[in-house]
User: Which sequence fits this backbone?
């Protein structure tokens, strides 16, 4: 009989044996195609923002964050002492999440926060993290392309959100900058730049989903001719990368989703999908005879598996609720086998994360001077809270192995509430 490792490999599930150099090269080719406006699995969306420039210090600014099912408002100052306190923060349900809303109700929710925060903000600018599919404009506004995350506000689709909100504010903002959460995460890295000089910047999110934003030379963005000298943040929408071979388990999981073949890479590394990939491995392994008849029957009865339960089980850790896998794999031999089959899912995620990041670090062209590394600001629960393996340590070891021989330096940073902090940086950047 095959070993668990042989079983995984026979079904196309590869982790340690991934060809790092080949995947990095393919990522780079897809980036160049997307920047040129040619067919690519990477959207490479120009954000019309750059981290270069002076940030107005010690000046609280109004920040809005619409990043999912919640709407948050606060003031944030980027202080000279390297701190960035978040004050007067309040949260409410995102308008349109529970019930459909009209335009006035939608914008009214945001205008209410702006009015509430105006007495505490020394700057008249507004930074607005708006994490839905949108087209960016050079003036900092975003036009909503479509809603995700079950938001029901159909009248907003196709509108320039910043301009529409500004019309409804009694105190007109000096500027309003809209940006998505990955671009904001990149800019939040600039807020940490106190005792170190960064040569370039990357924002990376690995939570329920994944994405990268990075800094690109204007001259390389061929689909926007005439930009002139300088640099611009590009939202890669990197979860869409599809030039990678899926295992039989990935394909089985993907086929059950509403958009099979969409955001293939995201489904291989991010938290919304790891548990479901693990379940497909368990179901196939049960049929192949890796578990006792009792465990195999219990696996066959499972309809879904959340990543939190999968992670806690593989980590032999207690969660905040009963874990369904504890009952499925009640026998210790079954438990040990299930962990041996499951842990590679997290190992592959970490290795692909490092390959992913290495490609974008190299694309920036930065990090050639160890005194000026590429800042990689990371946000997201899968990166920080995975328990089954030392996820952060694995990513670092892989990055060092890839980038060390190339003499490319990087620095991984983390900022609490990175999307909100980044929105403040965007609002407070001069020039």
Assistant:
């Amino acid at each position: 009989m095959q070993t668990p490792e042989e079983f995984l490999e026979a079904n196309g599930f590869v982790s340690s044996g991934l060809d790092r150099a080949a995947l990095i090269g393919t990522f780079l080719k897809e980036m160049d195609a997307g920047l040129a406006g040619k067919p690519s699995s990477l959207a490479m969306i120009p954000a019309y923002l750059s981290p270069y420039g002076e940030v107005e210090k010690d000046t609280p600014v109004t920040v809005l964050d619409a990043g999912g099912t919640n709407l948050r408002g606060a003031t944030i100052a980027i202080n000279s002492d390297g701190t960035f306190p978040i004050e007067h923060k309040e949260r409410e349900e995102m308008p349109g999440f529970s019930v459909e809303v009209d335009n006035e109700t939608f914008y009214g929710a945001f205008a209410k926060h702006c009015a509430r925060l105006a007495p505490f903000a020394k700057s008249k600018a507004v930074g607005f993290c708006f994490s839905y599919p949108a087209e960016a404009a050079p003036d900092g506004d975003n036009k909503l392309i479509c809603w995700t995350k079950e938001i029901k506000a159909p009248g907003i689709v196709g509108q320039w959100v910043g301009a529409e909100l500004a019309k409804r504010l009694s105190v007109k903002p000096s500027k309003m900058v809209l940006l998505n959460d990955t671009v904001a995460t990149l800019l939040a890295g600039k807020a940490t730049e106190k005792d170190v000089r960064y040569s370039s910047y990357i924002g990376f999110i690995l939570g329920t989903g994944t994405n990268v934003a990075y800094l690109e030379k204007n001259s390389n963005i061929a689909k926007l001719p005439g930009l002139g000298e300088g640099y611009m943040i590009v939202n890669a929408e990197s979860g869409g990368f599809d030039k990678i071979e899926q295992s039989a388990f990935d394909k089985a999981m993907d086929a059950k989703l509403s958009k099979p073949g969409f955001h293939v890479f995201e489904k291989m590394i991010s938290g919304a999908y790891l548990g479901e990939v693990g379940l497909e491995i368990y179901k196939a392994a049960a049929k192949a005879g890796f578990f006792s008849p009792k465990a195999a029957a219990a696996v066959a009865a499972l309809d879904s598996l959340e990543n939190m339960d999968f992670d806690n089980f593989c980590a032999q850790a207690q969660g905040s609720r009963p874990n369904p896998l504890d009952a499925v794999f009640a026998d210790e031999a079954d438990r040990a086998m299930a962990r041996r089959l499951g842990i590679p899912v997290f190992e592959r995620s970490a290795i692909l994360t490092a390959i992913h990041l290495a490609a974008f670090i190299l694309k920036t062209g930065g990090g050639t001077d160890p005194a000026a590394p590429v800042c990689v600001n990371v946000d997201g629960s899968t990166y920080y809270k995975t328990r089954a393996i030392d996820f952060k340590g694995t990513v670092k070891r892989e990055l060092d192995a890839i980038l060390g021989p190339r003499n490319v330096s990087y620095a991984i940073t983390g900022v609490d509430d990175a999307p909100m902090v980044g929105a403040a940086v965007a609002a407070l950047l001069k020039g």
Summary: Residues 109 and 419 are 19 Å apart (CA to CA). The radius of gyration is 23 Å.
